[in-house]
Amino acid sequence: MAQNLSRKILQAHLAKPSEMVPGEEICLKVDQTLTHDINAVMTYLAFEQIGLDRTRVETSVSYLDHNLLYLDHKTPDDHIYLQSVAKRYGVYVSRPGNGICHAVQVARFGAPGKLSMGGDSHTPHGGSIGMMCIGVGGMDIATAMTGVPMRLKMPQIIRVNLTGKLRPGCNAKEVILEMLRRNTVKGGLGKIYEYTGPGAATLEVADRVTITNMGAELGATTSIFPADEMVRKFMKAQGREDQFAELGPDEGCSYDGEIEINLSELEPLIACPHQPDNVTTIRQVEKKKVQQVLIGGCTNGSYKDIARAAMVLKGHHVHEDVSCTCAISSKQIYKQLLKDGYIEMLIDAGVRLLELACGPCCAIGQSPATEGVAVRTTNRNFKGRAGNPTAHVYLVSPESAAACAVTGTFSTAQEIMGGDVVRLEEILEPEAYPIDDSQLIPPLSVEAAREVEIVRGPNIAPLPVPDAPEQHLKCKVSLKTVDNITTDDITPASAEFSSMRSNIPLMSQYCYHRYDPAFAARAKELGKSIIIGGENYGQGSSREHAAINPMYLGVKAVVAKSMARIHKGNLVNHGIIPMIFEDPADYDRISQMDDLEIVNLRDQMAQRRVEIRDNTKGISFTAKLDLSDSELEVILCGGQLRYLKKQLQEMDEK
C-alpha cells in the first residue's frame, strides 16, 4: 500500500503493531534525544531518580546553548552539573560556543528516517532532512532515555504542495508566515505538515529548516520534507553522506488534507505583534520607526540567511537610530561566513555580533526599548517574550531585516538593492562545511562513567513530585486567564528567570509573574486550586516549568477551552489534570476565586467526563478529559516519574 513519508517513519518506529488512526494513541521507539540548558536540569534530575546506569537510546545530546549570559553563579553551576551528569549517563555534551541545539543536531547527528525527541518546541527543525522530530517536555525526554516507548496521539498528515520558486528578495520565512496567515497559531494542532512538490525540490536544507522549525508556531506535532538530492548535498557537505538514505512519499499515497502554495506568488511578509499568525505584507504594513533589528537565531541563522542579509547591507550602514545585532546559529556556519568575507560585511555595516547561542529569542539579552519596535528573524513575537512587555516585536526574513536596519523602518531587500536583488539568488549553501567537533564531548565508557562525580551547585534543588489526585477535590479558582496564554506568560523568559529554572521553590515565586504578579502568593496561600483557561492554553515553548511551577503551588487541574499539545503533555507528566470545557460557554460563568467542588473525582476521570460544582454561583458544569488510557494512569499514579518507575519495575520482573 502506498504511504506518505510521515506514516512510513512512524510505522518503522512503532513499539507494537497499530493501525495508526488519527486521534488514537501510538507508542514509538525513539532514536535520538536532545536537551538544552535552561530546561535540561529537570530532565536529568528525573533520570537520576529512575536509577538506570545509562541512556538507552542511540544518541542523547545535552546542549549548553541557550543561556550563556552568566548574571551570577546559577547558570554556570547548572552548566557544570549538566556536563557532569551527561558524562555519568552516556550523553554527548555540546559546549557553549558550539551553536544552537537545532542547528548542531541536524548538522552533526541527524539522518533521514530517524525519530528524534527534543526538550524544545522547535525540535521539528530536523524535519528539514527527512527526520521525524517532535518537541516534548523534559520528563518525556527522561522517559525516552530509559528506552520506554514514547506516547503520541496519531496526527493527521497534511500535504503542503509547493509549486513555483521563491522570487529574489524572498525567503523560506515567507512560506511559513503564509502558512500561519492561512492556518493560525492553533491550526496545526494534531497535525503533521508534510511538504512536497516541485517547489519543495528547489529549497535547500537551509530554507527547509526555517519552515519546519517555525511549524511549531502552528501548533503542529511536527513538519517534514523528503530526504532528496538537497538533503544528500547537505549531508555530503557535512562529511556524512554515508548516513544519507533517499526517503520520500510513495507515488499515489493519500493524505488527510492538502494545502497548495505557489512560491512564485509570495512576497516579503511580516508578522505583527503579538502573535506569529498576525501576518501581512511588508508593502501593506503601517510604516513605523524601528529601534532594534535582530538577524539570525535558530529559525533563520543559516549560512545562506546571514550571507544574504550581509549582501543587502553591503555598501550601506545601519541607521543611526537602530541597534542591529546578529546571532549566527553555529560555530561551523560562523567560520564559513568568516572565510567568505560576510562577517566583515556585517561589521563594516555596523552590525554587532552576538554569541553563538539562542539568547535574545528567549529574552536573554538585547531586550527592546520601552514601547520599542523590534524587527527579528526569530520565531515568536508573544507579548513580553523579548524581555519587555511594552515592546512591539515584528517577525521577518533576514533579507527584510537587513533592509529595515538600513532604512530604520519596515522595508524589503528590493527597496535597498533595486534590480541587484537578483544577485541574492547567487548565494547558496557551501559545497563543504568546516568540520570541527572539538566542542562536542563524546560519552565515556560505561566503566569510566561510573566513576564520574555529579557536581551540584547550591541552586540545584530536588525535582518536586506530585501526589496522586484525591477522590474529593474542593478548592478555589486561583486564576482565570484569556485565550492564547503562552508558556512565557506562565514561566517568564529572560536571563534572570532562566537561571532560576533548576530551583523550583525559587522559580515558582514568579509563576504568572508578568500576567498576574499576585498569582504565586495567592495560589500558595490557597494550598490547592484550579486554573481556568481560554483557547489554546499553554501555546509556545515546551518548557515544562509552566506545569511544574503551578503543580508546586498546589494547582490540581486546569480547565480550558482548548490546550496546546506539548503543554497538555507536561501537565499530565506532572500530575495536573488537563480538562476541556464540554460547553465553551461555561467559561464565561466561572470567576476567579469561585469555590469549586468535584465529588468522586478519580471515579469520574475513568469516564473521561467530570462534573464540577461551582458552589459560589450555585451552578454545575462538565469538563472532558481528552486522555488516553496510559495518560489517565499517569495522572492517577501521581505523575510520569511514579508511573515510569512502575513500568520499569514491571519490565524487570518479566
Describe the model.
This protein has 654 residues and is an alpha/beta fold. It contains 24 helices and 26 strands. The strands form 6 sheets. The chain has a 7-stranded mixed barrel. Strands 6-5-2-3-4-19 form a 6-stranded mixed β-sheet, with helices on both faces. A 5-stranded parallel β-sheet has the order 16-15-14-17-18, covered by helices on one side. β3, α3 and β4 form a beta-alpha-beta unit. α2 packs across α5 and α6 runs parallel beside α8. The radius of gyration is 24 Å and the shape is globular.
Q: What is the strand and helix layout of this fold?
A:
Elements: H1 5-12, E1 25-28, E2 32-36, H2 37-50, E3 59-63, H3 74-89, E4 92-94, H4 101-108, E5 115-118, E6 132-135, H5 138-145, E7 150-153, E8 156-163, H6 172-183, E9 191-196, H7 198-201, H8 205-214, E10 222-224, H9 229-237, E11 257-262, E12 269-271, E13 279-281, E14 292-296, H10 303-313, E15 323-327, H11 331-339, H12 342-348, E16 352-353, E17 373-376, E18 392-395, H13 398-407, H14 413-417, E19 440-441, H15 446-449, E20 473-480, H16 487-490, H17 495-498, H18 504-507, H19 519-526, E21 529-533, H20 545-552, E22 555-560, H21 565-573, E23 577-581, E24 595-598, H22 601-605, E25 609-614, E26 619-624, H23 629-637, H24 640-653
Parallel strand pairs: 2-3, 2-5, 3-4, 5-6, 8-9, 8-11, 9-10, 14-15, 14-17, 15-16, 17-18, 20-21, 21-22, 22-23
Antiparallel strand pairs: 1-7, 4-19, 12-13, 20-24, 23-26, 24-25, 25-26
Helix pairs in contact: 2-3, 2-5, 6-8, 10-12, 10-13, 23-24
